[in-house]
Amino acid sequence: MESMASNLFLWSSYLLCFCLRNNADAGNIFIQPPSIAKNSRMAAMEKIAMIMADAGHNITYLAHTEYKVPDDFATAGIHVMKYQYPNDKVMYVPPDDMVQEYISMSIIDEMKAFMERGSVTEAYISNNMENLYTTELITRLKETEFDLSIFDSIDFVLGTLMKTYLDAPTVLWSNAGFEFHCADWLVPLSLSSVPNIFTGYSNEMTVMERMYNVYYYINEQYYMRDWIEMKEHYHEVYATKIGLNYTKGKYLFDADLLFVQSNFAYYYPRPLLPNVIPVLGLKDRKANPLVSPFKEFVDGAEHGFIILTFGSMPTGMDAMRREVFASVFAKLKQRVIWRYGGPTPKTLGNNTMVVKWIPQNDLLSHRNLRVFMTHCGASGSAEAVYNGVPVIGIPLFYDQRQHCGILTHRHKMGRVVIFDEVNTELLSDALDDVLKNPVYKQNALKAQALARDQPMSASQTIKYWAEYVMKHNGADHLKSVPTRELNFFQYYLLDIIFSILGFAVLVIVMFMSMIRKCFSRNKPKGNNDLTDKKVK
């Protein structure tokens, strides 16, 4: 009995030491999602918060009052702090007509609209900064002494000021892949082989595509000046309010490490610096069991089922297009799950389930799924590859064209349908092809095998590198100073090339001058005297 008591004491002591050790290793992590709209960027930050909470760290998650806290945050012990969302005039979910405007724009107009200092953006930023930086909440955050802060790379106004205020090592998340505003982080583009994210080009571009690629890049950099000006304006206004000395930043968003939602089994090969870490999709968890009504609907699909979703985009569409989709679906023998929130189409068939939300990853892993019809957002595209499903890509704008190109051109796992060109014949043809041609499924499974065959899972990668930055109090040793500090002429050695050309021209000029002098010395002095003598 005495021996058992002794052993129990030893085991209890061991467990206590183990728990204390784990608690001692836990870091204080601050996470701020971008909150200008409810979309996949916010969902990605939620997953990162869960990954780090599951690793035993103390997570403080800052959001506004419109944000709905996920149920599993409480179980994971994630502490959510909220500030007041601006007001009713500042939209949280963009309306359908705004999305339709973007769809109808040219790429250049889209860039301009995306980056210009519009009234909505100004109202959102000014109200959010006022509501956050003038409350006692900001003081409480500073007192926590965080070991790491995590932001979305697009949160370049609120996020960068918060990063400076907290003065903690910082990690960024680039949700759409290799996004244009992360240019300070990436090896400067080789425009001949790295397509602009606004386009659907592959890395094998024609002469005209390469010409347009350069054209889009120049316009992109030109319009980004609005973002830089906006950031500097608000930092100058609010820095002093929170006790910071305003200094103009060199970069749009500086940090220690950048996670990019991508990997090279998925994306086209391109050079990267060591502080840029590709992580595809954060999808390394097993699918959850489906619940009613989805379970009964897909389990009973004798000929399989199809998913149509435009992700977190508004799900209404104009009358013509919704009737096209509904009528084509009604003629299929497959069942259809359509994530849609607009008016009920008149031609909706009995085989179609219309819902406002779907458990997307769980449905994509189901054995009866035949086709995934998607707008090709970054997260949805990653899920399609991770689950190895054939797709019909219907890109709307921005990065969706590029992800659609990756799925359909690089991996050849589906077809493209242009949203503005949708009609009954085009949609029926695409569905018939993808449903009947087994090559798309074979290619999807090949892409799945490549994407999953990684040294670490997405969760492990996020955890390792976040803890690495905490452990070493930053990661300056991974940054390349020359790629960020050298100007265009220096980076591409144009100063050296011009110097060599100038020297070569100088040598040639000197050589030609010497030749002329040599010939002028050997030249006869003329025959005027002889002529004169003959005349005489």
Automatic annotation (TrEMBL):
Looking up InterPro entries in the UniProt record yields: UDP-glycosyltransferase (IPR050271), UDP_glucos_trans (IPR002213), UDP_glycos_trans_CS (IPR035595)
Record keywords: Nucleus included? Answer: no
The family database entries (PROSITE patterns) matched by this protein are listed as: UDPGT
Going by the UniProt record, its keywords in alphabetical order are: Glycosyltransferase, Transferase
Q: Which GO terms describe its molecular function?
A: UDP-glycosyltransferase activity
Q: Which PANTHER family match?
A: EG:EG0003.4 PROTEIN-RELATED, FI06409P-RELATED
Membership in a protein family:
Belongs to the UDP-glycosyltransferase family.
Protein name stated in the entry: Uncharacterized protein
Q: Which organism is it from?
A: Owenia fusiformis (Polychaete worm)
